[in-house]
């Protein structure tokens, strides 16, 4: 608040005198009486006079107008500024908000204005409307459940989604194709079919190394098969079977595609031996059939003999037989237990060479090189070779024909 101050130079007294008092100077006779009257009138005028008091603020009066102008300008700007800007808080300027680097300053946080949806016209009976809306919702839920049950029944039991077409990829054997077609795939619902069970059923076939089944909506499946590749034929008393590199007995030779191009090993250990009573000794017969495993190392050794013997010795016309006890198993693991078996090479000129088996310490190439040297030596001597035994390492033994 401002304080009122009295300034001496701003005080004023006003005395109003009559005209007769001034003209009394011209009449000396009445000088004394007039003087008394004037004095009496002056005292009366003095008693009726007023003093004028002037007050001013402490600050310079010129600054008051400037403050007033500033307030007017602030009010004008406040009227022009939108109301929502006052509600937006001030946040630091960030790169994520502006997309550019700011040297300094503050930026108001970016917010979108709320959207105001038009309010519906209120109904006169709100309680009745809410009850009616609840009944409609309940009815809609009931209809939706019935529709869902109908669609599920149509999908799971209808004929539109039953498997009718089977596409086979990688199948070359007619036996395998027949097995897949009769593996209970057709007729099943495509949503309910158990793909893993069907794949295991197909992989149980000796022809199949691996299988994969994929679905094509609405009624088709694709069976992708990797078949086992036979590497030789194994001839036994029960028949001739194709065998892959893992020792799996795949199928009989007459059911194996391309069996005529494979080399054959004659298994003499599985030949039936007849007792004095005329009955075969079944305990000495190897149970070799499709689906069992033989020793993987023996199969690899036989394949090596067929490949390396013509290269190292130049002998192409020969037969390879196996003598010993070879056991088959169905556990999925190839192996052989029991006695040691031996592979025998029989030449077309009449001699036989005992090569031994896969468990001999002497490598196969060394044995074949020794065979080639003995054949060259006897050919130079013009001797007829009967047998040669290469199972004793660096000390081979051979016999001559009489």
Low-confidence stretches: 6-27, 272-285, 334-339
Query: How does the major sheet shape up?
Result: 9 strands, mixed
| The number of domains | 3
Mean pLDDT: 76
- Total beta strands: 16
Q: What is the global morphology?
A: elongated
Helix fraction?
25-40%
- Could you spell the SSE succession in H and E letters? EHHEHHEHEHEHHEEEEEEHEEEHEE
The percentage of residues in β strands lies in 15-25%
Number of helices: 10
Provide tags for this entry.
402 residues; alpha/beta; Ubiquitin-like (UB roll); 3 domains; nine-stranded mixed beta sheet; 10 helices
Descriptive report:
- The protein starts with 11 loop residues before the first strand and ends with a strand.
- 34% of the residues lie in helices and 19% in strands.
- The protein contains ten helices and 16 strands.
- α9 packs parallel to α10 (364-381).
- The chain folds into three domains: 1-68, no CATH class; 160-227, Ubiquitin-like (UB roll); 230-400, no CATH class.
- It has 402 residues and is of the alpha/beta class.
- It has helices at 20-23, 31-48, 61-80, 84-87, 95-98, 126-157, 174-181, 195-203, 296-313, 364-381, and strands spanning 12-13, 51-52, 90-92, 106-108, 165-169, 208-216, 220-227, 230-235, 240-244, 249-252, 264-267, 318-323, 342-347, 352-356, 385-389, 397-400.
- Residues 6-27, 272-285 and 334-339 have low confidence and may be disordered.
- Strands 10-9-8-11-12-13-14-15-16 form a nine-stranded mixed sheet. The chain has a three-stranded mixed sheet with strand order 5-7-6, with helices on one face. The chain has a two-stranded antiparallel sheet with strand order 1-2.
- β15 (385-389) and β16 form a beta hairpin.
């Amino acid at each position: 608040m401002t304080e009122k101050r009295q300034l001496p130079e701003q005080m004023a007294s006003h005395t109003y005198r009559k005209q007769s008092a001034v003209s009394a100077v011209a009449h000396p006779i009445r000088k004394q009486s007039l003087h008394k009257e004037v004095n009496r009138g002056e005292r009366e005028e003095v008693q009726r006079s007023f003093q004028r008091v002037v007050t001013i603020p402490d600050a310079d009066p010129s600054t008051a107008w400037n403050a007033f102008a500033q307030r007017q300008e602030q009010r004008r700007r406040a009227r022009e500024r939108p109301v929502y800007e006052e509600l937006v808080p001030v946040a630091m300027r960030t790169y994520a908000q502006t997309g550019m680097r700011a040297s300094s300053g503050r930026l108001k946080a970016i917010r979108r204005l709320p959207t105001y949806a038009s309010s519906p016209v209120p109904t006169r009976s709100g309680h009745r409307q809410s009850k009616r809306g609840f009944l409609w919702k309940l009815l809609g839920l009931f209809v939706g459940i019935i529709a869902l049950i109908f669609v599920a029944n149509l999908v799971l039991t209808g004929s539109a989604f039953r498997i009718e077409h089977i596409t086979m990829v990688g199948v070359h054997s007619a036996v395998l194709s027949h097995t897949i077609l009769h593996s209970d795939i057709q007729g099943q619902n495509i949503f309910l079919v158990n793909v893993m069970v069907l794949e295991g059923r197909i992989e149980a076939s000796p022809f199949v190394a691996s299988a994969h089944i994929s679905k094509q909506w609405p009624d088709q499946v694709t069976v992708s098969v990797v078949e086992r590749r036979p590497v030789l034929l194994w001839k036994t008393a029960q028949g001739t079977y194709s065998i892959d590199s893992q020792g799996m007995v795949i199928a009989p030779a007459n059911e194996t595609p391309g069996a005529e191009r494979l080399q054959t090993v004659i298994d003499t250990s599985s030949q039936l031996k007849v007792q004095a009573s005329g009955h075969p000794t079944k305990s000495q017969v190897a149970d070799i059939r499709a689906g069992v495993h033989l020793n993987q190392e023996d199969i690899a050794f036989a394949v090596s003999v067929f490949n390396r013997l013509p290269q190292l010795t130049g002998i192409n016309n020969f037969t390879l037989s196996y003598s010993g006890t070879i056991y088959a198993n169905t556990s999925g693991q190839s192996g052989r237990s029991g006695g040691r078996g031996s592979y025998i090479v029989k030449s077309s000129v009449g001699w036989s060479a005992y090569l031994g088996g896969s468990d001999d310490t002497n490598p196969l190439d060394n044995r074949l090189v020794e065979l080639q040297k003995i054949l060259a030596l006897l050919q130079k001597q013009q001797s007829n070779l009967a047998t040669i035994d290469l199972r004793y390492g660096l000390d081979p033994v051979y016999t001559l024909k009489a």
